[in-house]
Automatic annotation (TrEMBL):
List of residues binding L-homoserine: E189
Pathway recorded for this protein: Amino-acid biosynthesis; L-threonine biosynthesis; L-threonine from L-aspartate: step 3/5; Amino-acid biosynthesis; L-methionine biosynthesis via de novo pathway; L-homoserine from L-aspartate: step 3/3
Protein name: Homoserine dehydrogenase
NCBIfam families: PRK06349.1
SUPFAM superfamilies membership: Glyceraldehyde-3-phosphate dehydrogenase-like, C-terminal domain (SSF55347), NAD(P)-binding Rossmann-fold domains (SSF51735)
Organism classification: Bacteria, Bacillati, Bacillota, Clostridia, Thermoanaerobacterales
Binding site for NADP(+): G9, F10, G11, T12, V13, G14
Record key words, sorted: Amino-acid biosynthesis, Metal-binding, Methionine biosynthesis, NAD, NADP, Oxidoreductase, Sodium, Threonine biosynthesis
Residues annotated to bind NADPH: K104
Positions annotated as active site in the UniProt record: K204 (proton donor)
Source organism (scientific name): Caldanaerobius fijiensis DSM 17918
Assigned EC number: 1.1.1.3
């Protein structure tokens, strides 16, 4: 069976998704029985040079070439920003298409209404890639919350900030030199404000709070601070005291009260969090049954995020396999009876 994908956005993450699908297409077909390919890619500028080999005929500047195409089964949104991504996802859902998104800001601000819309139309909306890159934290939390009560989550959720702080510590760079290197390597945007001011971590934390506590937390109730004001002197002072600085996001529930925040935090130099370096993320989850578990992995970059998107695509495909199996099993069950004329 052939599954066709419409890709909205062809920047860093979009090209990563394309590369991974092309690289693993035969393996996916062998393992699942589905041949998965990208049919169309929405871009703003078809003439832009991109660091990937692809057929130019795949590109379109018209979203309706994808959203209204009845042969496209899955929409993958990796554009970023709230608008027009929200409207595109809504239209895809209403047209009966499953959706995979890596858009953390959109899911933080409008995730609940989009999930309800998807449920009402009987389609999937997957968003593993919105939090912690290649770490399958949302999938793991969904499993935890079936049997356990989680009361705390905290972690390093922004790979860009962690990369900058690592360079300031390991290479003795100042903040601006480390930021420029992050931008050169594609870990930071030309305008890095969302990352370095803590908003990116805040969006991810809001998504995790919804998953864990079933609550929509107002950002006004969170204390949010980034790393833009951290100097080389601050890093050296922390190191003299046997510590490292990390941008840490956390949320905890005590009774009916949820508190949460994002900000720089000192960790003992020998702690696990201090050893999380570069673009790595780390997420600590505490629950009443399993105790505590820590997940560490790459949280930024083309391929780690692309891999998280691909994992959601495979989840949708597995749903297709399950539905097809039920349909086949029912047919075989009906055909197992012998018709007798009375």
């Amino acid at each position: 069976m052939h599954i066709e994908i419409g890709l909205l956005g062809f920047g860093t993450v979009g090209t990563g998704v394309y590369k991974l699908l092309e690289l693993r297409r035969e393996k996916i077909k062998k393992r699942t029985g589905f041949d998965v390919s990208i049919k169309k890619i929405l871009v703003r500028n078809p003439q832009k040079q991109r660091n990937v080999l692809f057929e130019k005929s795949l590109l379109t500047t018209n979203p309706e070439d994808i959203l209204l195409d009845k042969n496209i089964d899955i929409i993958v949104e990796v554009m970023g920003g709230v608008h027009p991504a929200k409207e595109y996802i809504e239209k895809a859902i209403i047209n009966g298409k499953d959706v995979v998104t890596a858009n953390k800001e959109l899911m933080a601000k409008h995730g609940l209404e989009l999930l309800k819309l998807a449920e009402s139309h009987g389609v999937s909306l997957k968003y593993e890639a919105t939090v912690a890159g290649a770490i399958p934290i949302i999938r793991q939390i969904k499993q935890f919350t079936v049997t356990d009560d989680i009361y705390y989550i905290g972690g390093i959720l922004n790979g860009t900030c962690n990369f900058i702080l690592t360079q300031m510590s390991d290479n003795k760079w100042d903040y601006y030199t480390a930021l420029k290197e992050a931008q050169r390597l594609g870990y930071a945007e030309a305008d890095p404000s969302y990352d370095v001011l803590g908003y990116d971590s805040m969006f991810k934390l809001k998504i995790l709070i919804r998953e864990i506590f079933g609550a929509e937390m107002d950002v006004k109730d969170m204390e949010v601070e980034g790393i833009a004001n951290i100097s080389r002197d601050d890093v050296e002072e922390a190191e003299r005291n046997g510590c490292k600085i990390k941008l840490y996001a956390w949320a905890k529930k005590e009774g009916d009260k949820i508190t949460a925040g994002v900000g720089p935090k000192l960790f003992d130099a020998n702690s696990i969090f201090s050893r999380v370096s570069g673009v790595e993320n780390a997420v600590l989850v505490k629950g009443d049954g399993f105790g505590q578990q820590l997940f560490v992995g790459y949280g930024a970059g083309q391929m780690p995020t692309g891999d998280a998107v691909l994992s959601d695509i495979l989840d949708v495909i597995n749903d297709y396999r399950f539905i097809r199996k039920i349909s086949v099993d029912k047919t075989e069950y009906k055909n197992s009876f012998t018709t007798v004329a009375l």
